[in-house]
Amino acid sequence: MRILALLAAAQITAMSGVALAGPAYTADDIVKHFTAADQPDLGRSRGLCIGTRNECNAGLPVRKPAGNFDLVVNFGYNSDVLTPAARANLDEFAQALQDARLKSATFAVEGHTDGHGGDDFNLDLSSRRARAVVKYLADRGVKAGQLTAKGYGKARPLAGDPLDPANRRVEARLEAP
Length: 177
Known about the structure:
Blueprint: H1 2-16, H2 27-35, H3 53-57, E1 68-70, H4 84-97, E2 107-112, H5 119-139, E3 147-151, E4 169-174
Parallel strand pairs: 2-3
Antiparallel strand pairs: 1-4, 2-4
Helix pairs in contact: 2-4, 4-5
């Protein structure tokens, strides 16, 4: 749960425009996230809501698919150039992927955008951002075969509002062996 709190704080800070003092997480946090298979995710409780999607999801925490990790990699508008804060976070991720417990694992690096812009534009932008992350990690010693870049554009929003900045993200997903 500590990693979720760190990520939430980092995203709030990033959305407020305040620069991060350091990485949003440590390499040890990342290793623990991907190796903590003994903690089952029971998901949300079920209920019935009559109303719009936003009304029914109001106040609920955003839930990501199991096995994903938000890299907290932010980019400038219409840019695939990594910011200094993004590079600091990716340095920690690169260190984690070189840990003996993750060294043989493979990861999909998934780029996402918010709902602004057309489908083709967002698909290209999300792919360029995912490739920029993979290249940066490879330059830091992560084996090329460990990473696969994939862009999803605006097809997989994290937040209920497609225009929410939280939807602009890069995630890493542990791939099944």
